[in-house]
User: Which sequence fits this backbone?
């Protein structure tokens, strides 16, 4: 039988948030979840180089937020725990019931198999075993782990470019690999080897897991944590092997400085595929590519996002 939980929410104000958390902690409360608009805004500002767009629903949910959440079981023990934890606290309190099974898997309803381009078929791992459309290659993915599920327009655009430019026996360098979806797609579509890099160390294990879901081992793919823009040693290591495809599904503020390093990473005839670009900033990215000797070969657009394909202007 599934456990039923109570999600308990205490509303407060930003100035009172720390005091509320202190009282809850003194009463024995654990597992506090804090939602604060000011912290959220500060986080966005301090990490502006990693995003160009924030979901409107998320912005609305955080508007004016200053709240603390925690969870107790919906039974006599949990009710007693709730009374102890909130004793002496005068703050508006609401509860909502959650079934454990729904809590753990409700997000899965948002992920269904997805056809991308002319050949790929992105399949959540829990759909493995379901029929794959004729002529398509299944790419199995755990979409709950990190960014890069194929659902977002920027990832789909980049996957379409990968399908167009990948060559049998070629090599792929995926900068900002996230879930590893682009590296895995390149290998499934004919590349011989792929290397992915991400600034988030957690992405390394996630990417290896998704590669394994598709029968791809470390003999064909490697994933590393690091930042090519700040780690000269990493850049030099990556540049020792020239790459047939260099991919960057990131944001404009990373792609622009990255474009200065692309030519030394590309093999002769290699192509740079970049996505994650808000349409209003595509001109800036194209100008940066041109400044760094890269000629745009093509442009794809969907839902306000842009993906570009480019190579050195001399055709090397």
Assistant:
């Amino acid at each position: 039988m599934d456990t039923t939980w109570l999600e308990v929410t205490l509303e407060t104000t930003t100035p009172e948030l720390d005091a509320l958390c202190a009282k809850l902690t003194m009463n024995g409360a654990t597992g506090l979840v804090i939602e604060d608009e000011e912290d959220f805004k500060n986080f966005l500002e301090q990490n502006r180089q990693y995003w160009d767009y924030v979901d409107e629903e998320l912005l609305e949910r955080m508007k004016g937020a200053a709240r603390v959440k925690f969870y107790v079981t919906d039974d006599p023990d949990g009710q007693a725990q709730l009374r102890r934890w909130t004793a002496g606290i005068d703050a508006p309190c609401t509860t909502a019931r959650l079934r454990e099974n729904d809590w753990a898997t409700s997000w899965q309803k948002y992920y269904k198999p997805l056809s991308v381009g002319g050949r790929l078929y992105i399949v959540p791992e829990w759909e493995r075993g379901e029929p794959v459309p004729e002529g398509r290659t299944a790419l199995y993915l755990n979409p709950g782990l990190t960014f890069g599920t194929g659902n977002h327009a920027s990832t789909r655009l980049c996957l379409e470019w990968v399908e167009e430019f990948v060559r049998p026996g070629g090599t792929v360098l995926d900068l900002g690999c996230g879930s590893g979806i682009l590296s895995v797609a390149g290998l499934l579509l004919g590349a011989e080897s792929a290397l992915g890099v991400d600034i988030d160390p957690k992405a390394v294990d996630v990417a290896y897991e998704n590669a394994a879901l598709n029968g791809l081992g470390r003999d064909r793919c490697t994933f590393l944590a690091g930042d090519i823009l700040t780690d000269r040693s990493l850049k030099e290591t990556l540049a020792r092997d020239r790459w047939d495809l260099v991919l960057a599904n990131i944001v404009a503020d990373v792609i622009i400085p990255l474009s200065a390093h692309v030519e030394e990473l590309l093999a002769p005839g290699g192509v740079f595929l970049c996505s994650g670009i808000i349409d209003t900033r595509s001109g800036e990215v194209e100008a940066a590519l041109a400044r760094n000797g890269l000629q745009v070969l093509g442009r794809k657009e969907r839902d306000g996002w842009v993906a570009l394909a480019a190579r050195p202007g001399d055709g090397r």
About this structure: The mean pLDDT is 88. The chain has two domains: 4-106, 150-312. The longest strand covers residues 266-278.
